[in-house]
Each structure stands twice: as C-alpha cells, then as structure tokens.
Amino acid sequence: MPVIPGVMALGDGDELHGPGTGGWSLVELLVVMAVIAILMALLLPAAGLVQRAALKSRTMLQFQQYRSAYEHFRAEYGHYPTMGVDGARFTLRDNNAVFVETLSGRGLSGGEPLDVYARKANFRRIPFHSFSEAEFSPEGNTYAGEIVDAFGNPDIVVVVDGEGSGVIPPSALAEIPHASAEPVREGVILYSRNAQERDDWQWVYSWR
C-alpha cells in the first residue's frame, strides 16, 4: 500500500474512526447506564420528599379551614362545638356525620341534618364550612366515605380549649411523638395520627 506523505498508514486490522463513522462501544454504554442509574438514585428520594412536603401543605390548609370553621362557630354561638363528646378531644374517624353536619348545617346527603347533636348545636343551620368530595376517601378505598387528610389518613383529631383560656395544655398532646412540654397557645388545634406507623402516612400538626 502506498504511503501518502503526512498520512499514517493503516494496518490490516485497523479501522478509521471519525465523526459520524463510529458507534457506541459496550464500555461507553455501560458507563452511560451507570451514570443514569446514579442520577435516578439521587433524584427519586428528592422527588419523594417534595411530594410529602406538598401533601403536608395540603393537609395543613385543610386543618386551617376546619379551625376557621370552629372559630366562626364560636363567634356565632359563644362556644366551640363539642360534637357531642365529653371533654375537649374529638376524633373524626368513624364520627364524620356529626362533624360534617354541625359545621355545614346540612345533612350528609343534603337537606336537614340527621344527627341529634348537629341539629341542636347549629340550630341556625349556618354553613361554617362547605365540604368537598376531595376531603373524603373515594369509593373503593379502605376508608371510603371517611374524611381523610392529603395522605389518605382518616385518623384526624380535634382538640379545643374548653376553658376559654386560649391555651391547649401539654397533657392533651401526650400521644404525639416528641410532644413539647410547652402548651399550644391556640383555641383549636388539629393533628393527623400515624399510630400505625404507616410509611404512606405522616403525623401532621396544625400549629407547626
């Protein structure tokens, strides 16, 4: 084979590689796949944290709406609704009817409230809160028809200051992990319980 001046001669087993003339080698593909896997491993947990933060924010907004309904009820009737239970603590799970009918002034299916306490407590039928379908677990779910937070958790607790001091004592928060020894200076607080320690639920507090 003649040698052209200025050009290196190629042997029988050599190939000429240039732009557009070669493809990816196996090693290069493996390196790219490894880089993609590392990036996904880094980004997926971050995406999960962002999603949990968004769900927590939605739950906080939901709790603020319920707190506002309680405060408007108090402004109208002179006291917080007890939902017919003794003490200042009320759990929404399995007690949706009295909660919804008292704060909305309507029955679960419209019309007059059916719950005895709701009819007496909100006798003026004032709509302190208009409940939407998004606040209830949909049909087909384990907690269908229950009020749930943004995580799908129906274990929501309401605590009110029954003494009118504007303070919730630490004793009312004893079940909360790492509860503060300081009282909460609010008239109404709500929190989602995750006593079952489910990975898809979270403890959420209206005052934090």
Give the uncertain stretches in residue-range form. 13-18
Name the average pLDDT.
87
Instruction: Name the overall outline.
Output: elongated
Rg, Cα atoms, Å: 30 Å
Indicate the structural class.
alpha+beta
Determine the N-to-C terminus distance. Answer: 82 Å
Placed side by side, the strands forming the largest sheet appear as 1-2-3-4
Share of β-strand residues: 5-15%
How would you describe this structure to a colleague?
- The protein has one domain.
- About 30% of the residues lie in helices and about 5% in strands.
- The protein has three helices and four strands; from the N terminus they run αβααβββ.
- A four-stranded antiparallel sheet has the order 1-2-3-4, covered by helices on one side.
- The longest helix has about 50 residues.
- About 5% of the residues have low confidence.
